[in-house]
Amino acid sequence: MPQIGPYTLYTVETGRFGLDGGAMFGIVPKPLWSSRIEPDAQNRIPLHMRCLLLEGADRLILVDTGIGDAFVNTKYEDIYAVDHEDATLDGSLHAHGFRREDVTDVILTHLHFDHCGGATRGNGETRTPTFPNATYHVQAAHWEWATTSNPKEKGSFLQETFLPIQAAGQLHRVDGSGTFAPGIDLMLANGHTESQQLVKVSDAERTLVYVADLLPTTHHLAAAWTMAYDIRPLVTMDEKADFLQTAVEEDWQLFFEHDPDTAVASLTRTERRVEVANRRSLDAL
Hints:
Blueprint: E1 3-4, E2 7-20, H1 21-25, H2 30-33, E3 44-56, E4 59-63, H3 75-79, H4 89-95, E5 105-107, H5 113-116, E6 120-121, E7 128-129, E8 135-139, H6 140-148, H7 163-167, E9 171-174, E10 178-181, E11 184-189, E12 196-202, E13 207-210, H8 233-249, E14 253-255, E15 264-269, E16 274-280
């Protein structure tokens, strides 16, 4: 397994789902995006829910949790083509030799259902935290945003999937960007949703950034290729430009949460744009 600083890194596949391709690529015409990711008969493109696990410094840190059982036996399981046949959160943890009880920290990049649904388990009002011994870290500004919600994101924030974290006394509200732990930093982005936090793991030799929904797939690097889900698309464009410039200059490796084919990639700058290079698994980091 790859190592950065004191941390051993693991990919945790939690399943797949599908979202409308038009929504995922906003104003980009379908003939362009569909040539890269083929949609199904309902215009949904396949997406992974790929999480990152960090083991080291006496901690086991999980970044995001996938949908989990948030949609089990509901119409939304079909609407979003939720597929846990090949991968589940528990199954992936077990494959790496861990149990839910071993996780000490859960960093939630944001509280949309495909990122935090697996943070709790059960039905309705009886849901409880999936990781009984973990502290869940959410940006304070984002928690306030998600718990008050807004019409655009109302369907993405399923409060029953994250309010039990607070009720159980396991919520830690993070106040802005900065160092989370030695070798781990949090970076904020506000275009997709208020105070999304990206996770940067680094040492003297290399850096890996979990890019979450700033760059949901490797096909979202270009400025105009932004999601209709973004609450501030112009801010997303500026954030992407700044992020990609720094990533190229500092040779960051990017970990893609939703890309259907690529887990990790580096970047290269051509005469026209920044492009993905050296697509690979995390194990090949």
